[in-house]
Specification:
The protein is of the alpha/beta class and 481 residues long. It is 40% helix and 13% strand. The longest helix is centred in the C-terminal third of the chain and has 16 residues. The relative contact order is 0.16. Bound molecules: pyridoxal-5'-phosphate.
């Protein structure tokens, strides 16, 4: 929620109060330099004792509500037939409108099962943009991802409210090129994670659904950030001005054949689900569920999380909850724009994204500017962000780097976790780093796994810029910070 102050300034305001706290620790810049070296300049490999603000991801890191925690205490621990499952099924029916539910342990598990059930070697899966784990599962099943976003989707400085839109004309061309038999489904991701959490519009979803339906191709909806996408539709699409989040969600779901989500984002729960109204889709996936996840009434989640998800799904339809991340991200982005720092605009759904190609134009893409920016920002702040650029792309069959469309440092804003002063601290340290950006150099791999290398890969700086940057920081802020 935003609130207007008497000065006319608009600020996001927390519509919740803190009941439980966890201590955090701000290591000195000396320790941060050691820690990033120990982590192979990969923020995934940092330990949280060395992290002040954890802006790596909003996945599984959102603050839960008291009602969610309370629900966990009454879960029904049963391998099969747990009452907790039926509560979740009721919430799925009520909020999303689907009768069949398949719980899974997290979003990528849903992607695994969908790929297993529907993607054959040689298939093409069109989508508005890929997500790392989605692409991995489509590739492993022998298929290929086709990204058919609209022109302008990759412009980081933009005023396009719906950069997540899919181009229906490209979908038609793709179907004609490959044939209906090789297109198992069309996937719409709400909101497009890798290009800055950008939403698609309802108008676009309707068009895509109509085009897909004309060929008899099902529409799969990745709803990991469904409440954020619904919030942006409410705020940015005139037809939905004044609509409730639930009304927007209900309208979205009219266009969906198979829904899946990571519960770790919008629903603030460590879990995931697949849902549909079509028995044939349910039947195609169900046999794989116990093989890879668990029995059909828990799907690899603990029953505590199943309970909390039922509550989380209902809560994400509340205005104050759906807007809780987005409004702080908007503020974060605005503040950095005021400081002249290149960020992705419009503000998106999961994070504030710095544009590393504009921030560090002197670093060639082959030296991973977004990875370098993530490491440099950690040294300058103790804040952990995530590289979303070429490091996040695996090499092609010939062993060459695949250059990412964008080089972003993602500073995730987990919902209801951090406060305004945390955001202001991060803004200040980004500003300091921007003033010292010429000191930051590139990275090179030292150890590189073949799949999803960004998770475990180890890198080193080209030159000793990390040491120099930490020294410059100490000169300005002293040894303590
Ligand atoms: C996080 C995410 C996933 C994967 O979910 P996990 O729970 O992390 O496995 C899939 N799609 C999107 C859009 C996501 O944001």
């Amino acid at each position: 929620m935003n609130i207007t102050l008497s000065t006319g300034k608009i600020i996001p305001i927390e519509m919740h109060k803190v009941k439980i706290v966890q201590k955090t620790n701000l290591p000195s810049s000396k320790r941060r330099l050691e820690a990033i070296n120990e982590a192979g300049y990969n923020t995934f490999l940092l330990r949280t004792r060395d992290v002040f603000l954890d802006m790596l991801t909003d996945s599984g890191t959102n603050a839960m509500s008291d009602n969610q925690l309370g629900a966990m205490m009454v879960s029904d621990e049963a391998y099969a037939g747990s009452e907790s499952f039926y509560k979740l099924a009721d919430a799925v029916k009520e909020v999303l409108g689907f009768k069949y539910l398949l719980p899974v342990h997290q979003g990528r598990a849903a992607e695994h099962l969908l790929a297993k059930a529907f993607v054959k070697p040689g298939d093409v899966v069109p989508m508005n943009y890929h997500f790392t784990t989605t692409k991995a599962h489509v590739d492993l099943a022998g298929g290929k991802v086709a990204e058919i976003f609209k022109e302008g989707a990759l412009e980081t400085a933009s005023s396009n409210p719906f950069k997540g839109n899919l181009d229906p004309a490209k979908l038609e061309a793709l179907v004609k090129q490959h044939g209906v038999a090789h297109i198992p489904f069309v996937r719409m991701e709400a909101t497009t994670n890798l290009i800055g959490g950008q939403p698609f519009s309802m108008a676009n979803l309707r068009e895509v659904k109509a085009m897909a339906a004309s060929f008899g191709i099902p529409l799969v909806f990745d709803g990991s950030l469904i409440s954020e996408n619904a919030y942006f539709i409410q705020q940015r699409e005139p037809e939905f001005k004044g609509a409730t989040i639930q009304q927007v969600i209900t309208e979205l779901m009219k266009n969906v054949d198979i829904f899946y989500m990571s519960g770790r984002k919008s629903a603030a729960v460590r879990g995931g689900l697949i849902a549909t109204n079509e028995k044939k889709f349910y039947d195609a996936i169900l046999p794989w569920l116990p093989v890879y996840e668990g029995f059909a009434t828990y799907g690899g989640m603990s029953t505590k999380e199943v309970e909390a998800m039922a509550v989380g799904l209902r809560e994400m339809t509340e205005q104050a909850v759906a807007s809780s991340g987005a409004d702080f991200i908007q503020y974060f982005v605005n503040r950095l724009e005021e400081e002249g720092v290149p960020v992705v605009t419009p503000a998106g759904g999961l994070a504030c994204h710095l544009d590393a190609m504009r921030f560090l134009p002197h670093i060639p893409q082959a030296q991973y500017p977004a990875g370098a920016l993530a490491a440099a920002f950690y040294i300058a702040s103790g804040v952990r962000g995530m590289e979303r650029g070429t490091v996040s792309m695996d090499r092609d069959a010939q062993g060459n780097d695949v250059m990412s469309d964008l080089e972003l440092l993602r500073l995730a804003v987990p919902r209801r976790l951090y406060t305004m002063s945390h955001i202001e601290y991060a803004v200040d340290r980004v500003k300091w780093l921007y003033a010292h950006r010429e000191m930051v150099g590139g990275l090179q791999f030292v150890e590189e796994p073949p799949v999803l290398r960004f998770f475990f890969g180890r890198l080193e700086p080209v030159g000793d810029w990390g040491v120099q940057l930490a020294a410059a920081f100490r000169a300005d802020f002293g040894d303590e910070f």
